Automatic annotation (TrEMBL):
The gene is Scrn3. Signal peptide: none annotated. InterPro entries: Peptidase_C69 (IPR005322). This is Secernin 3. Belongs to the peptidase C69 family. Secernin subfamily.
Length: 396
């Protein structure tokens, strides 16, 4: 499969309006994959000998987990993006580099998103959770249901006060603290501004011949195929997203982020074999007395989807309309040929029906105008009768 991924964005004051952090992400996945929006309450775990089952492997449980709202492919345990009750938001991206991708089943990047949200009450603590789990359990395994698709991961982690970029290659990683605005896509983007790193990351690059040990260390140059000198001049979604954020820098609002996620010319709003299957925008006020507001689509096509608000309050009702009816923790490729079950939740079904109605209406209009604009509907030469004096209308 061709390397496709998602786009995740963050804007911090003073790039935003109203002393708030704005987080946004498009999840670009296989066109027929259903993404659900699901809530899990906070929990206390007294039996720590009972291990936690993630998508493929089990990990140690922790004494307490926080409430989370997740947007996730309905076949797996983790999440493409989400938030927790403390205002921490995480989105992840697929990235490819020089290190071979491990096909051994370990933690998916999407598992690490959920684990970070459930176990951390700040962005930097979530970063610590992810890198600790990465070091202990590793990352790997099939990332698509019934398809061969594996990758390493980058993460954008934000809270009310700060944001971090975390990029990984196998067990190695580098992290950058965000200033102003930042985005990630399906490529390495951390270069020489490295605020935290794996202790052996530079030595490993030197041993592999990716860095001579003399020039200033550039993480993207060492671990990826990307020419960092041209990274900001290419037509990639990463470059286009950077331009869109900086175009509105100083005036970024929730509406701005929604428009960026809906942008088609940049490719951020993706169509085709891979398309934007779900989107999320979060408003994180720096004033702790104000609630964080998380808006999720739960459906494909952000330009046609409504961003629906979610706020962490006591006694949250189950999100029944966005929960897949056929979730189960099975091996996605255990049976061949693999037949995907129907995972469409009620909102997804209604959205697809509305889309079909719009498409049918559009086809009918196109058929009418095709007939109306056809020169064969009118007499070519003036003749007797009313129609004889009409000319073929100009249609474009």
């Amino acid at each position: 499969m061709q390397p496709y991924s998602c786009d995740t964005f963050v804007a911090l004051p003073p790039a935003t309006v109203g002393n708030r952090v704005i987080f946004g992400k498009n999840s670009d996945r296989l066109f027929d994959e259903v993404q659900e929006v699901i809530y899990f309450p906070a929990a206390v775990h007294s039996d720590l000998e009972k291990r936690l089952k993630c998508t493929y492997i089990e990990v140690d449980q922790v004494p307490e987990t926080y409430a989370v709202v997740l947007s996730r492919p309905a076949w797996l345990w983790g999440a493409e993006m989400g938030a927790n009750e403390h205002g921490v938001c995480i989105g992840n991206e697929a990235i490819w580099g020089r290190e071979d991708i491990s096909k051994e089943e370990a933690l998916l990047g999407m598992d690490l998103v959920r684990l970070g949200l459930e176990r951390a009450d700040t962005a930097e603590k979530a970063l610590n959770v992810i890198v600790d789990l990465l070091g202990k359990y590793g990352q790997g395994g099939n990332c698509a249901e019934g398809e061969e698709f594996s990758y390493y991961n980058s993460f954008l982690i934000a809270d009310r006060n700060e944001a971090w970029i975390l990029e990984t290659s196998g067990k190695f990683w580098a992290a950058e603290k965000v200033q102003g605005v930042r985005n990630i896509s399906n490529q390495f983007s951390i270069t020489t501004k490295i605020d935290r790193e794996h202790p052996d990351m530079r030595n490993y690059a030197k041993q592999r011949g990716w860095w001579d040990g003399k020039e200033e260390f550039d993480f993207a140059a060492a671990y990826s195929y990307t020419d960092t000198a041209t990274m900001m001049t290419s037509p990639s979604r990463y470059c286009q997203g950077h331009k869109l954020l900086n175009k509105h820098k100083g005036n970024i609002t929730y509406e701005t982020m929604v428009e960026i996620l809906r942008d088609r010319p940049s490719g951020i709003n993706m169509k085709g074999e891979f398309l934007t299957t779900a989107s999320m925008v979060s408003i994180l006020p720096q004033d702790p007395s104000l609630p964080c507001i998380h808006l999720l689509t739960g459906t494909p096509h952000p330009e046609r989807s409504v961003f629906k608000p979610f706020i962490f309050v006591p006694h949250v009702s189950p999100l029944l309309d966005t929960k897949s009816p056929t979730f189960e923790l099975e091996r996605p490729v255990a049976k061949k040929p693999y037949v995907k079950p129907d995972r469409r939740h009620l909102l997804y079904q209604n959205h697809q029906q509305a889309l079909e109605m719009i498409s049918n209406h559009k086809l009918k209009l196109e058929a009418f105008w095709s007939w109306f604009c056809s020169p064969w509907q009118y007499l070519q030469e003036p003749q007797s009768g009313a129609l004889g004096h009409l000319h073929t209308p100009h249609c474009s």
